[in-house]
């Protein structure tokens, strides 16, 4: 069983969105996937899974709430992939989840307001021998400015961290899809489907241990 976690220093950078996108991709690839929702105040993934079930969207994606990774490991079996969505706050649980994960995704926007705290967390996690090489940044909620995108890549490269080749774009349609229980390439909009496919594939390969 592989564990892919989405962690962050702050909210609003797309953690929960990308967790659902990865879960959807894994399910469509025939993997048995579980969404582990560690944000007990928001429970975004739990609500989304319930909406998906009500709307009859297939394949089914199971989501469960957890307050510790120890509890998850004690109760979860027979899954190919567990996708963990944590709170928008770096705490002891963040470190615990990161140490036990096979890959740790840190979503961030392109602004320095997002990059600074994300890189601070990445550096802290990288100090742990159990986490260092697992950290991968994901440029998320990216607007149409090529200058901001290029600058963000430079900042991340200079900090010495890996970043996904593809980005998650800021599009209102993706949020509308999530509200209906869909994610990423399940969108009704063909342009959104195409823009989601590349990052979905990259997330999935890393989550399942396939080198870029």
Features:
single chain; 212 residues; alpha/beta; Rossmann fold; eight-stranded parallel β-sheet; 8 helices; 45% helix; globular
Notes on the structure:
The protein is of the alpha/beta class. Strands 1, 2, 3, 4, 5, 6, 7 and 8 form an eight-stranded parallel β-sheet that branches. The protein starts with a strand and ends in a 5-residue tail after the last helix. The protein is globular. 45% of the residues lie in helices and 17% in strands. Helix 1 (15-28) packs across helix 8 (190-207). The chain has a single domain, classed as Rossmann fold (3-Layer(aba) Sandwich), CATH 3.40.50.300. The protein is built from eight helices and eight strands, in the order E-H-E-H-E-H-E-H-E-H-E-H-E-E-H-H. The mean pLDDT is 93.
Tell me the CATH superfamily: P-loop containing nucleotide triphosphate hydrolases
Q: Report the strand count.
A: 8
Secondary-structure element sequence?
Answer: EHEHEHEHEHEHEEHH
Structural class: alpha/beta
How much of the sequence is in beta strands? 15-25%
What is the CATH topology?
A: Rossmann fold
Shape: globular
CATH C-level label: Alpha Beta
Distance between the termini: 20 Å
Count the DSSP helices. Answer: 8
The protein's oligomeric status is: single chain
Layout of SSEs?
Blueprint (H helix, E strand, L loop, with lengths): L1 E5 L8 H14 L4 E5 L6 H11 L7 E4 L3 H7 L5 E5 L6 H9 L2 E6 L3 H15 L8 E8 L3 H14 L2 E2 L4 E2 L2 H8 L10 H18 L5
Parallel strand pairs: 1-4, 1-5, 2-3, 2-4, 5-6, 6-7, 6-8
Helix pairs in contact: 1-8
């Amino acid at each position: 069983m592989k564990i892919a976690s989405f962690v962050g220093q702050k909210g609003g950078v797309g953690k929960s969105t990308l967790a659902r996108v990865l879960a959807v991709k894994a399910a469509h690839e025939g993997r048995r996937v579980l969404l582990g929702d560690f944000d007990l105040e928001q429970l975004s993934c739990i609500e989304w899974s319930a909406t998906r079930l009500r709307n009859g969207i297939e394949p089914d994606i199971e989501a469960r709430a957890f307050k510790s990774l120890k509890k998850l490991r004690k109760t979860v079996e027979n899954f190919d992939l567990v996708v963990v969505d944590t709170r928008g706050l770096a705490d002891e649980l963040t470190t615990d989840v990161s140490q036990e994960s096979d890959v740790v995704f840190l979503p961030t926007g392109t602004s320095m307001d997002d990059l600074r705290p994300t890189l601070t967390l990445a550096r802290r996690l990288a100090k742990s021998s159990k986490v260092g090489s697992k950290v991968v940044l994901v440029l998320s909620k990216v607007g149409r400015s090529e200058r901001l995108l290029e600058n963000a890549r430079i900042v991340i490269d200079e900090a010495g961290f890996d970043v996904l080749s593809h980005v998650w774009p800021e599009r209102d349609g993706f949020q509308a899809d999530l509200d209906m229980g869909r994610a990423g390439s399940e969108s009704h909009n063909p342009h959104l489907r195409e823009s989601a496919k590349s990052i979905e594939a990259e997330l999935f390969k890393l989550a399942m241990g396939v080198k870029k």
